[in-house]
Amino acid sequence: MKKIIASLLTAAIFIGGCLFTYHYYYGGTDYYTQITTTGDHDTTISSDGVVEDIYRYQQTAYNTQGDSKEVKLQEYRSNPLKEGAFLKLVVNPHKGVLRWEEVDKAQVPQQALSAMTD
Predict the structure, then answer these.
(1) What is the pLDDT of residues 52-108, one digit of tens each?
(2) Is residue 36 within 8 Å of residue 88, measured between CB atoms?
(3) Please, are residues 71 and 84 in contact by the beta-carbon 8 Å criterion?
(4) How crowded is the C-beta side of 86, counted as CA atoms within 13 Å?
(5) How far is Cα 48 from Cα 52, in angstroms, rounded to an integer?
(6) Would you give the DSSP letter of residue 78?
(7) What is the number of alpha carbons within 13 Å of residue 74 lying toward its C-beta?
(8) CA distance to 56, 59, 62, 64, 90, per residue, from 111 (Å)
(9) Largest alpha-carbon pair distance within the chain?
């Protein structure tokens, strides 16, 4: 019986540590922003000769309560992000913007939307 309890306790600690680590590296808070510029464009050539276009954006993003945060977004793509597009960003406090997706204006929380337009 003691071995079973010890095994369950060890498994619970391991799973808890895995969940904490996953959230630490890949979790974040949702923020919303609207693209207002074409971003800073830069072109680099990788070691294998491929030309890469990089667009860098520094935006003010707002969470669901309307609190603001300055975020940096770097995109490797051939065209800049569409001006006027609303983005939902997942921002990690340790790594910055992890991922983003374009959303409709209706999907932006009202407090974030009103903070964007002020």
Answers:
(1) 899 999 999 999 998 999 999 988 888 888 989 999 999 998 899 999 999 999 999
(2) no
(3) no
(4) 15
(5) 11
(6) S
(7) 7
(8) 26, 17, 9, 6, 17
(9) 64
